[in-house]
Write a structure and sequence with these properties.
The complex is a heterotrimer of chains A (325), B (297) and C (321). Chain A has 13 helices and two strands; from the N terminus they run H-H-H-H-H-H-H-E-E-H-H-H-H-H-H. Chain A has 325 residues and is mainly α. In chain A, 43% of the residues are buried. Chain C has a domain of 176 residues: P-loop containing nucleotide triphosphate hydrolases (Rossmann fold), CATH 3.40.50.300. In chain C, helix 4 packs across helix 5. In chain C, a hairpin with a 5-residue loop joins strand 11 and strand 12. Chain C is built from eleven helices and twelve strands. The chains are: A mainly alpha (325), B mainly alpha (297), C alpha/beta (321).
């Protein structure tokens, strides 16, 4: 088990290293950073000073080394729009994005799981067919368009919910979140639904397929032959088997949701790091872009790692095989 | 328990009739054909060329659906802020969206097919290396990879296609490799080797045709993904340039008018996008069931 | 009689038409008695077993007949009442031990839940019952094994666990669906021996479903032979084996490597088991039968044929014609 985790950690480090190469050589070397970091009306002396200050006169590998050294210490340079360290900017925005992402994953579980179970247990019933058709619609709906339509209906037409920004933040148990204020909830509902929609559809299909795969198996019939109640068969025998893919996919979806938050945050003006990255790409604020990409890649790698370990803990077959070796 | 049912029909006929059994899938197919037809015929059937600025009249700006244009025809779906007919803009936008999606899907399919076959045929280290890259890439959200590429490359039609291909090739590679590995162990490949046929010939004439069914299924689904992802990137202002307005860009343009209640500029391009994607997904869903006998029926 | 099945009809609608998987099966088995239900795969013998327990999944359904268990008809009984019988009064052991235990649940979970499904015992009492049941079927160090997962057991051990579960509530009827086919021969012998001992000692009625006449011949008191969803011959095991009346039973016997004909050639039955969707109108075995005549195009009835025997054939063996 330990050996497995160490192996996975090494692999994660390698992927992060390759990503740093890609991002660095991509963002820093394609296009001329001097154009961005130096004011257009600067004279030759100022330019030379800036080039030296940025280290652009050094050989490429040396630039990369200092980039990596900086990155390891959490220093990706300063945003030239905000004048703040890029990482500070990202970390300021991270809680809002995480709040949105977790809300979306929560909705995915509480809505997707029961609907998927129902559709899997009664695939030929009216409700089952409707849920399936709804899930096809759900993952066909372009997220950004749904966001606009949610604003149109609930904010513009009905005027029930705000369409813009995050609510006030309150502190509870040392965690600052807009979840602890009523207005925070009102602001969160539409973006969270928007971000969750695709994942709800995926969850429904995953659970439905899992249930339909497990139900005809012998051990379910045997469980019935033991005289178990239907509730116990579904709740324990079926659920325990489909939990494996569900947990895996949920973990991976958390990473996807954090990345996909760029869309929802742009529409609802949610002050998370996704909105920041879009603005930064358009303003060519490269230190922020690099910081965002590295932070997000690191988050995704970390999540994948956790998912793999949890998976191996949940599946007795994998767990024991690994312990034996 | 399972009674063998003898079937004399040819396999492709059975597939066609199995496909046709679902009215929902037939509905999807009809929708898809209509969408593709409209995209192809856009210049012929549009009331107006939305990008011939001389034809636009700023006095026609932001008119609601059903209003009459100064040129005499009707804006059945309204007009945008520059007096552009939304029907025409949507038809042209659909054309661009479908073209970009199809190009990306085609190239990604070719690239993924090649790498998948090479991995399966070569085995060993080459296989290990290719599949490791595929696994790692698939563990990242598609939009993150697209963001990285666009942050690095900047935007433009070729770069968007490149980004979509990079996001998607891995799905094909994995699928093709999986089915090619199964085919590789079959007797006919051994027999072809025994006959002294070249590797390329065995790969492309013998193994490839047998891997196509799952690839067709993946390609349908990925085509929908490509169109949706391109629309998303264009909406974010990271996709196609303003001179090539796909549906995503039309929706983005209309977004600012939504708050003032001018819903049509954003809503109708979205409906067109949605219908196209739903149609593709309905077809893909049914193909998966028909072509994959092992999957849940 | 513990169980009397009368004219059981189990049907599955399919795209190709209605499949009559079980078509008018009648059988009975009493306390301590072992009935061997024999037939090729697809003959409907397993479906018969599942029908008795009410485990036919839609769109399949029991379309007719009665299943009288201790005098009470189980067909059409509410699900909750069937549930109370399953596992408690009627138990079933399945064919493939690799598939009958849930791979992600520990053995103790799967045994304790079986106890608690029918008894209001405490968890500890249920655990003790489970441990005793494992010990009874010869599983060494049952306390440890309770904590294991199914994949840590061999096939034979898993089948013992399944049998232990079937025995938990001392049922009056056990339906064993080819429980030994997936196991190797020595383990097969042990399990057969133990099951027979059990039936005799506890007075449990046992229906032993098998495609293998050799297995059944050493075990059963009575034999019923199924072909294409119907019973074609039934009678006391000894009599049926010594002098089969139906050509199909004869064929099954001739294809066994056993008994008198040392050095004799094994004879396989020509042709293949028919598809249930496309049965001939008359005797389903006629296309493969050397004795078939034009008369066989009409469906023969299951007719009395001497002491406690019945056969569904127009030209039974031993008949002068």
């Amino acid at each position: 088990m330990t050996a497995y985790v160490i192996r996975r950690l090494l692999q994660a480090a390698l992927v992060l290293f390759v990503m740093s190469l890609l991002v660095f050589f991509g963002v820093y070397l394609i296009g001329d950073p001097v154009e961005i970091f130096v004011a257009a009306d600067a004279d030759q002396v100022e330019r030379a000073r800036a080039i030296a200050a940025l280290g652009l006169d050094k050989p490429i590998w040396e630039q990369y080394t200092s980039f990596v050294q900086g990155a390891l210490g959490g220093d990706f340079g300063r945003s030239f729009v905000f004048g703040l360290p890029a990482v500070t900017l990202i970390l300021q925005r991270l809680p809002a994005t995480l709040e949105l992402a977790f809300a979306a994953v929560f909705l995915t579980v509480v809505i997707g799981l029961p609907l998927g179970l129902w559709a899997g247990l009664r695939p030929d019933g009216f409700a089952g067919r409707t849920i399936l058709a709804g899930s096809i619609l759900g993952f066909s709906l372009p997220t950004f368009w749904v966001g606009i339509m949610l604003i149109l209906v609930f904010a513009v037409q009905l005027g029930w919910l705000p369409s813009n920004g995050r609510g006030p933040v309150a502190e509870f148990l040392g965690i600052k979140s807009s979840l602890f204020t009523v207005d925070g909830w009102r602001h969160l509902i539409l973006p969270a639904i928007n971000l969750a929609l695709l994942n709800i559809a995926l969850m429904i299909r995953l659970v439905r397929a899992g249930v339909r795969e497990v139900l005809p198996l012998d051990y379910i019939r045997f469980a019935r032959a033991k005289g178990l109640s239907w509730g116990r068969i579904v709740g324990v025998h079926v659920m325990k088997n489909i939990m494996l893919p569900v947990v895996t996919v949920l973990g991976l979806e958390l990473g996807a949701v954090i990345a996909f938050a760029v869309v929802t945050e742009s529409i609802f003006n949610w002050p998370g790091m996704g909105k920041l990255i879009i603005d930064s790409i358009q303003r060519l604020d490269r230190p922020v872009v690099v910081a965002y990409l590295m932070v997000t890649v690191a988050i995704v790698i970390f999540i994948n790692l956790v998912v793999d370990v949890v998976y191996s803990l949940l599946d007795p077959r994998i767990r024991l095989k690994d312990l034996d070796h | 328990m399972s009674a063998a049912i003898v079937d004399d029909e040819a396999p492709w006929r059975r597939m066609v009739s199995a496909y046709a059994e679902s009215w929902l899938a037939m509905f999807g197919l009809v929708l898809l054909v209509i969408c593709l037809g409209l995209a192809l015929a856009a210049p012929l059937i549009s009331p107006q060329n939305p990008y011939a600025l001389a034809q636009l009249d700023i006095m026609d700006g932001s008119l609601p659906p059903g209003s009459e244009a100064s040129a005499g025809f009707r804006f059945w779906l309204g007009s945008d802020d520059q007096g552009r007919d939304m029907v025409s803009a949507i038809l042209y936008g659909l054309r661009i969206s479908v073209a970009v999606g199809a190009a990306a899907t085609g190239i990604a399919l070719a690239v993924g097919l090649a790498f998948g076959l090479i991995a399966a045929y070569a085995g060993g280290r080459i296989d290990g290396a290719i599949m490791r890259i595929v696994d790692i890439q698939l563990s990242f959200p598609a939009i993150l990879i697209a963001l990285i590429l666009i942050a690095v490359l900047g935007n433009g039609i070729g770069k968007i296609v490149f980004a979509l291909v990079t996001v998607q090739w891995a799905y094909y590679a994995r699928t093709v490799r999986a089915s090619a590995m199964v085919e590789r162990r079959k007797d006919y490949v051994e027999a072809a080797r025994g006959l002294g046929l070249s590797s390329a010939r065995i790969l492309f004439r013998h193994m490839l045709p047998n891997c196509l069914a799952p690839v067709i299924v993946i390609a349908t689904v990925q085509m929908a993904h490509a169109i949706a992802l391109e629309a998303t990137l264009s909406f974010l202002g990271l996709g196609l340039p303003v001179t090539e307005p796909s549906l995503g860009l039309l929706i983005a343009n209309g977004f600012q008018y939504v708050l003032s209640g001018k819903y049509w500029i954003s809503m109708f391009p979205g409906v067109a996008l949605l219908v196209t994607i739903v149609a593709i997904n309905l077809v893909g869903d049914r193909l998966r069931e028909v072509l994959n006998p092992r999957g849940p029926q | 009689m513990t169980l009397v099945v009368e004219d059981l009809q189990t049907q599955f609608p399919t795209r190709a038409g209605l499949i009559r998987a079980v078509d008018g099966v009648s059988l009975q088995v009493g306390p301590g008695e072992i009935l061997g239900l024999v037939g090729e795969s697809g003959s409907g013998k397993s479906i018969t077993g599942f029908s008795i327990l009410g485990l036919i999944d839609p769109p399949g359904r029991i379309a007719g007949g009665r299943v009288l268990f201790q005098g009470r008809d189980l067909v059409g009984l509410p699900e909750e009442e069937l549930r109370r019988l399953r596992g408690a009064r009627i138990a079933m052991v399945f064919q493939d031990p690799m598939m009958t235990l849930n791979p992600v649940l520990r053995i103790d979970t799967q045994m304790i839940e079986a106890v608690l499904a029918h008894e209001d015992a405490g968890r500890e009492a249920a655990r003790a019952r489970a441990r005793d049941a494992l010990a009874r079927v010869g599983i060494p160090s049952p306390d440890e094994r309770l904590l294991a997962y199914p994949h840590q057991f061999s096939g034979g051990m898993r089948q013992r666990v399944a049998i232990a579960i079937a025995l938990l509530h001392k049922p009056q009827l056990i339906i064993a669906d080819e429980p030994t086919t997936a196991l190797d021969v020595t383990i097969q012998g042990q399990i057969l021996f133990e099951m027979r001992k059990l039936a005799r000692e506890s007075g449990t009625a046992l229906i032993w479903i098998s495609h293998d006449l050799a297995v059944v011949s050493g075990l059963a008191d009575r034999i019923a032979v199924m072909y294409a969803g119907r019973i074609v011959e039934s009678g006391p095991a000894r009599a049926v084996l010594a002098a089969p009346l139906h050509p199909y039973t004869r064929g099954l016997l001739d294809s066994l490597p056993r008994g008198a004909g040392r050095g004799q050639r094994l004879v396989a039955i020509p042709g293949m088991a028919p598809s249930l969707g496309r049965l001939p109108p008359g005797c389903a075995f006629a296309p493969r039968c050397s004795r078939a005549t034009a008369a066989c195009e009409a469906m023969p009835a299951l007719a009395e044929a001497g002491a406690d025997r019945a056969v569904r054939c127009i030209h039974p063996l031993g008949d002068a014609a």
